[in-house]
Structures are given as structure tokens and as C-alpha cells.
Amino acid sequence: MTVRLPVSGTPVRVDFDPDRTRQRFAEERDRRLKRETLGQFQGLSDVLEVEDVDRYAEPFVRDAVVEDVEVAILGGGFGGLCAGAYLTKQGISDFRIVEQGGDFGGTWYWNRYPGVQCDVESHIYIPLLEETGYIPSKRYADGDEILDHARRIGEHFNLYRAALFQTLVTSTVWLPIKQRWEVRTNRGDVMRARFVVRCNGVINKPQVPRIPGINDFTGKIFHTSRWDYDYTGGNQHGNLDKLRDKRVAIVGTGASGVQAVSYVAASAKELLVVQRTPSTVGARDNRATDPDWAASLEPGWQSARHRNFNGLVNGHDLDEDLVSDNWTRVFPYLNGHALIDVDPSSLPVEDQMALAEIADMQLTLDIHKRIDEIVEDETTAAALKPWYGYLCKRPGFNDGYYPAFNRPSVNLISAPTGVDALTETGIVVAGKTYDVDLVIFATGFETGSSSPSRYGYDVTGRNGQLLSDYFSDGTKTLHGLVTHGFPNFFELGLSQNAYLVNFAYMLDRKAHHVARIINHAVRHEINSIEPDLEAQNAWVSKVQQAAEGYLQYSSTCTPGYYNGQGDVSHAFFQDAYRISEVDFWDQMDTWWDAGTFEGLTLHTLVPANQ
């Protein structure tokens, strides 16, 4: 059919009715909204009935560390690794890395469920490839290969000598007289650091739903990030042979559920996939890295590939697509150029917005077609179809998920309002009880809550100000890095900086930027760095204004972590600066090259009244 844009009347070629589709999106959203929003979940560490253990490292005892260091790096995932690597490249080696896990890797240390892979091309997702001389084995690397690379970074930059593993930070307090941060841990460590770089990440605390009867279930329960191969057998690559006689329920169909389902389905006697909201799952098309291509790479290839990818997904008009994946196909498509015969940029703003909405709908309905082509049972296919804007959730890409539902041993259970309860022997969904031996929660990680809730500690800045209180009405930073009243404290997570798809790239760039600022401070004997309040306020306003359009879109979405489970005040992207990442990092380089440190106050002497 043909519809016309509201102002210019430009015809748009579609095979669906946008009004009816918009209505269906709203109906399905309303079915899934829960009054509790974020409160419907609880952190895994808060649920005694579900094990929150490190299955990958033996516990050990060590003496407490009491020392002064230049830098305390909180977190040993890719953010902490990049921070350590870039500080080392700057000639700064006096730092500590505090990490909860038994090794480096962060989310890749914990997420070892079968089928786990990155969803951004390995050659641009995995950081510091050129520096370590490594080329990933395939387009989307498996989790164990990514974890090996985290260790490779640790070895290459001699970071293991600085690491405190199996250690949790309990407090971080600014000492005004000493002009240092005091970092304490659960092992009695006391580190007085000139600078703190927080790299705890945004998906560090696993969560499960608040389900009545969870402590009554007598079978096995675990979260995907705490996968128990002693129970299932096999490894990340499958062969879960100990499930041959087991009835299994996987609760959740986000990224981890989508990846794990086909592996459990191949081994379990019976699999129930409990789905609250369907995912959009496109083709993965994974393949081995071409050795001839790898041999042809010239110095600077990864940064060039980063810039090309980010340019395309952020709307830059480029002649070449070096990565050519789903991301670089989807984002350019969203301006609707394929649906009309004129340049979308020539249209009135209202028409551009209407066209973008139609293109967004089309991408979702393309997933419907894919499902119909793959899934044999019509009822199952209908239940798997997502009804929300394509960018309401992070799109998935997997070639085994939909075919798994053609197995007679696999059943899809729709649960728009979630699981009702657990009993001694099973799981209750929509009033019906299903007996199972194993419940696997593929329910993701806590987002949208306060940082003390997720990280287990607060940050106390000047005059006893708690960061959680200061951020109670919204994040406040300059450039997504530093906050007034919290000197020498740098945030590497998502915090008012540009970000769209590749989280590891964001961590890499922020770590590089922070390392050069710290190096400047060390060389010039600068005691404290923090933003001017006026500059910070201006940056916060700029970020909030840029986010308005996205938050309006997100408010119409089905509940999920992207939109705070329906409460956009806790939306995942609320603190993202919605401009091109290419433009953002160009701005940061221009700011750095100017050498004036505009917006920052740099103290070379201890202020008298602290």
C-alpha cells in the first residue's frame, strides 16, 4: 500500500498499515507494563535461593594491602583493562586494579553460558587488537576467545602485577587534607589514590524476577551469568550431555536467552522457553576471518574501521562500508530513504519524523517475515513476533534461535506479565504449572538503579557529599567523565557521553582520554581536577536537550531495560549524549589539542579551605 507523509504528502511505499501497527504496538506495550517497573526485579546477590558464586576461580586468602598509589582503577573488565593499558602507555605504572572476579574480563568473565558471543563485529568490538598483535578467529567471536583476549591485554601490558582479584570495593572517600581518595575493600585493603577511575560497568549485577515461591523450588536454579556446567555438562560450545533426562525452563528471551536456547534445546529432554516479550532476531551470518584479509591489514586498520562503522551507524554519508553488517544496514535504513523517491533530508522535519517511524516499523515487520519463513508451527510463530519499534530493544542476531522451536521437545510459553510463581516441582505461568528440573534465569542485569545498589559502594566527595545524593535528580558531569565536587574522579561507564552500539569502543576511547588527562596532571604536579559548575551545568543541559527525541520514542516502547521497564526516568540511554560518536570524539580531541582544559579547574596547590 501507499501512505502519504503529513506535510508534503510524499508517497511512502509499505506493505502494512502504519496506524494499525502503531495501535498494536501500544496494545502489546500495555499488556506488559507493570506498576513495579524496576521493582519487579531483585539483584542476584540479594536472593539467597539462587547461587551467586564464582564457579571459575578457587577462593584464596591474602593479606590486606595498605598503600598509596597514583591511580585506583575500580573494575577489571574492558574498561579497567583499557585504563591500565593507556596509563601504562603514558608511562604511569603506579596503579591498582580492583576486580570482583577471579581474573580480568568483566562481563566476559562471568558470562560463559553456551552460545555466548559478541554482537558487534569482533574486529571492532575487541579493544587493543593492533597493540597486542591479535586478529579474532571469526566475525563474531565466542565468549571464551574474548575472555582470552582480556587476559592477553593483562599479560601484554603487565597488568596482573597490579590486580586485586576476588575483591569488592566497600567505600570510596575523598580526603581533602591529603588530596587523595581512600578506597577500602571487603578484604581490609586501604588504598589512598590520587585519582580514581571507575570502570564497574553498567551490567555488573545479575538480576532475577521477584517470584513467589522461589525458595520452595527443590530443583536446580541458576542465572546465565553463573552457569553451572557441573550440572549441565558440556561447555560454551554445547554438548550439555547431563541435560539428556532433564526438563528445563529458560526464563527470558533477551540476548543471553536467544544465544543459549538452541544449545539447551539440542541436549535437554524438554525445554520450556518462558517469554515475556519477543526479541527481534535477525540473521547472524557468522564466518571465519579471511586469512588473506588479515594479512593485508595495514597499521591503523582498527581505528579506521571504528571510524567507518561509527560514521555509518551515526548517520554520516560515507561511500564505503568496511564492516557491512546488520548494524550498518539498519541505522542508515531508518531515515526511510528506501521507502520514498526523494531525499529524506529535503522533507519538512515533521515528515522526516513520520518517515523514520514507518521505517522503524518496517524493520520490525521484516522480522515477522523471517519468523514465518523459519518457524513451522503457526501459533508459535505468531507468539514469537515482536510488536514494538525496532530500536525499543537491542536487536539480536542469531541463526539457531528460531529453528530451535521446530524441535518437538521445545515449547514456547508466553508470559506477558512474567512468571506467576515457582512450586516445589515447577514453574507457574499464566495460571498453568509446568514441572521442570532446572530453571535458568536469562533475565539480564540490574540497570536504572543507583550506583551503590549496582556496585555495592557509594562515592563520598568534597564536604561529605554522596554521589548517589548528588545524582538523585539526574547525572551531572562534564563530557561524561568528571563531576563537580568529586575531584580526580573519572567515570568510564555510560555517563553523558556519546554512545550508540559498540560499548567496548566507548570504554576504549574514554580510557584513552582519561589516561592522557591524568598523565598531564602527574607531569605538571596538579593536585586536583574537577569541572567548573557552570561548565558542568551547560553540558548537562546540552545532553538533556539532545535526549528529548529519543526519550519520547522510548516512552512509547514495550517495557525493557532500554526504557527503565516503562519508567523513562530510569532509561538506559537517559545519560547518553545523543550525537554522533564520531563528532563527539572529534570534539574531545579538539578540546584536548587546544591545551586550555576549558571547563575544568586544575589546582596545583592544596586549597586552604577544603
Keywords:
alpha/beta
User: What is the helical fraction, as a range of percent?
Assistant: 25-40%
Low-confidence stretches: none
Strand content: 15-25%
Structural class: alpha/beta
Intertermini distance: 68 Å
Q: Mean pLDDT score, rounded?
A: 94
- Main beta sheet: strand number and arrangement? 8 strands, mixed
Fold blueprint:
Layout: E1 2-4, E2 11-13, H1 18-32, E3 41-43, E4 66-74, H2 78-89, E5 95-98, H3 107-110, H4 122-125, H5 129-132, H6 143-156, E6 163-164, E7 169-175, E8 180-185, E9 190-198, E10 207-209, E11 220-223, H7 229-232, E12 247-251, H8 255-265, E13 270-275, E14 281-282, H9 291-296, H10 301-313, H11 326-333, H12 349-374, H13 378-384, E15 396-397, H14 401-404, E16 410-414, E17 421-422, E18 426-429, E19 432-435, E20 438-441, H15 451-455, E21 459-460, H16 467-470, E22 489-491, H17 503-523, E23 528-531, H18 533-555, H19 581-594, E24 600-603
Parallel strand pairs: 4-5, 4-9, 5-6, 7-21, 9-22, 11-20, 12-13, 12-20, 13-16, 14-15
Antiparallel strand pairs: 1-2, 3-10, 7-8, 8-9, 17-18, 18-19, 23-24
Helix pairs in contact: 2-17
Structural write-up:
With 610 residues, the chain is of the alpha/beta class. 33% of the residues lie in helices and 16% in strands. It is built from 19 helices and 24 strands. The strands form seven sheets. Strands 4, 5, 6, 7, 8, 9, 21 and 22 form an eight-stranded mixed beta sheet that branches. Helix 2 (78-89) packs parallel to helix 17. The longest helix has 26 residues, at 349-374. The protein starts with a strand and ends in a 7-residue tail after the last strand. The relative contact order is 0.15. The model has no long low-confidence stretch (mean pLDDT 94).
